[in-house]
Design goal:
Oligomer: single chain
Shape: elongated
Order of helices and strands: HHH
Strand content: under 5%
Structural class: mainly alpha
Number of strands: 0
Low-confidence stretches: none
Largest sheet: none
Radius of gyration: 15 Å
Distance between the termini: 46 Å
Helix content: over 70%
Length: 87
């Protein structure tokens, strides 16, 4: 459980560090997409295992399930708009 939370936090921290060093908007999006597709679900699953089965656990897992497909889609839409704005 703490391994899952630690791995999710590590993914988020490494992605944030990479986004700070990136120069363009599209490069920053490449670094921030793993936060929604890997980091957040790992943290949510780790918290769910730690807390046991409650209503709050179901809400955690629901948020992770919504974020898993929505994050890359929103990043793609943001990248498309940013690419059109820089042309």
């Amino acid at each position: 459980m703490t391994v899952l939370i630690g791995a999710g936090v590590l993914v988020c921290l490494l992605s944030a560090a990479g986004a700070v060093r990136a120069r363009t908007v599209l490069d920053r999006l490449h670094f921030l997409t793993p936060v929604t597709s890997v980091g957040t679900p790992l943290i949510a699953i780790g918290l769910a295992v730690h807390a046991g089965w409650h209503l709050a656990t179901a809400l955690l897992l629901l948020c992770a399930a919504v974020m898993l497909p929505a994050g890359p889609v929103l990043a793609s839409a943001t990248g498309r708009v940013a690419h059109r704005a820089t042309r």
